[in-house]
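Incident log, structure service

09:12 report received: a user says their structure output differs between two submissions of the same chain.
09:20 pulled the input from the user's history:
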Amino acid sequence: MDLASLPARPLSLEECRDLENSGRFRTLVPAGVFDLSESDRRLVPAVVFVTESSIVAAGYVLAADADVDADADVDIDAAAADATATENDPGGWTVVTERPAPEGKEALEEQVRAVGAELRAWAEDQSWAEDPSALLDAL
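09:34 re-ran on a clean worker, output below:
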């Protein structure tokens, strides 16, 4: 999935609904919604996108967290393929995990739950998980 079409900030809940209703996805599952007192919008920094062929968990990385992620052990090929959070453009959307979408409703639901769990585990390590007000800096 090409994350370049996403805005360079967390999505709003309204944008998630618009994307889901666009017909581009079988479904879209927000994995985190923050209602910030300093903002009139609900922000969604982690989303599971389900298309006919794939299930993609994507998360928003704040610029401050991108520096930390750059020091972690990463798969160089995967990091090179994901140009949304590079040293030249820190912060932005990144693919946390991607799997083929199985046929059959039950198998698909099981995969979406598994991908969602991986995304939630990833999100726990992001600074916005403890302090969602940091997401306002990305707006």
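09:41 both user submissions now match this output. Likely a transient worker issue. Closing.
09:42 reviewer note: The first strand starts at residue 11 and ends at 12. DSSP finds five helices and five strands in the chain.
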